[in-house]
Design brief:
Layout: H1 3-6, H2 9-20, E1 26-33, E2 40-47, E3 72-78, H3 86-108, E4 134-140, H4 145-150, E5 156-158, E6 164-169, E7 172-178, H5 189-192, H6 198-207, H7 213-227, H8 236-250, H9 256-260, H10 265-270, H11 274-278, H12 283-287, H13 292-296, H14 301-314
Parallel strand pairs: 3-4, 4-7
Antiparallel strand pairs: 1-2, 2-3, 5-6, 6-7
Helix pairs in contact: 2-7, 7-8
Length: about 325
């Protein structure tokens, strides 16, 4: 079996995009179940509620095509030599119809956007979420010339960004992302890792900057599949576990300042026993900065009085 067939590119792309969108209120999943009969969407990006600790990355730092994500983003990805043809586009449109129903039912029942609880379609009519809440992405490594020739003239329009196109298929507007044509820029490295053009993916591999332990491990996995043979971790938990193991091996090579860089000092101190920390300082250092009342707090008044009398006697 060829390496191309053994490589779960859809899952890897989902991990790359999850890492690229760290800090944004979105959850990324791969192989999303869309129907009672198994039909899987390659990648789904869902908007989540904002979190206080999140730092929102400006649009210009996001991978091209993802600057203005909708609440629900459906991605169909054709890796390697797979053509993105009319059937693939129609399939993506059908996924949109099915998923819009699922998302609307979940919203009707007040289930979270990413809830995976199985739902049954109501017998009566129900309101659908607005069409503006959904965007479909056709992700191809090469420009789909055959697809464009099969569509009515003017169905594919260039945008101001290289490799990003407006694509009209049936009644739906798709966003076409052609990975091999994207600008060679670090923000596009998560896309470029999946390019078929060697110069393109090598540049992406060099400029890729992980934002999480999963991203770090993803970088290693891509290198593993581009440069060598072997077995891949297939689950998210496997990736997290192996990323931690890799970090444990790598961190001892760093000097203490590099290890602590970016960590919250309060969080670091909480990991140590207070008594152990205090034993590292002499009494004068411990008391430095305290007002007189704080210094005397907890002392026996008789002890204080005896010390004062001694001081008076000395003078």
């Amino acid at each position: 079996m060829s390496r191309e067939k053994r490589t779960p590119w859809h899952e890897l792309l989902g991990k790359a995009l999850a890492d690229a969108l760290i800090g944004l209120p979105y959850r990324v999943s791969s192989e999303e179940e869309l129907a009672l009969r198994s039909q899987r969407l390659d990648v789904l990006i869902i908007e989540q509620g904002p979190s206080p600790e999140q730092t929102i990355a400006p649009p210009e730092e996001r991978p091209d095509g993802l600057e203005d994500l909708a609440a629900h983003n459906l991605l169909s990805f054709k890796a390697g030599g797979e053509p993105f043809d009319v059937w693939a586009a129609e399939e993506l449109n059908s996924h949109y119809v099915t998923y819009r129903k699922l998302a609307s039912i979940r919203a009707l029942r007040h289930l979270p956007a990413g809830d995976e609880t199985p739902v049954a379609e109501p017998r009566k009519a129900y309101p659908l979420l607005p069409v503006e809440d959904f965007r479909s992405y056709a992700i191809a490594t090469r420009f789909p010339r055959k697809l464009v020739k099969q569509l009515p003239p003017g169905s594919c329009q260039k945008t101001a960004k290289a490799g990003i196109y407006h694509l009209r298929v049936g009644t739906r507007d798709l966003r076409l992302v052609v990975i091999n044509q994207l600008e060679l820029h670090p923000r596009n490295a998560p896309w470029g890792l999946f390019a078929t053009d060697e110069a393109h993916w090598r540049a992406a591999f060099t400029s890729y900057r992980p934002r999480s332990d999963v991203g770090t491990h993803l970088h290693n996995l891509i290198a593993h599949h581009r440069f060598g043979e072997g077995k891949m971790a297939h689950t998210y938990e496997d990736m997290k576990r192996e990323a931690r193991d890799w970090l444990k091996t790598y961190l001892p090579q760093l000097d203490p300042e590099e290890r602590l860089e970016g960590l919250d000092p309060e969080e670091v101190l909480r990991r140590f026993d207070p008594d152990e920390v205090l034993r590292r300082f002499d009494p004068e250092t411990r008391l430095k900065g305290l007002d007189p009342e704080a210094r005397l707090k907890g002392l026996d008044p008789d002890v204080i009085e005896a010390w004062l009398n001694k001081q008076r006697g000395d003078h």
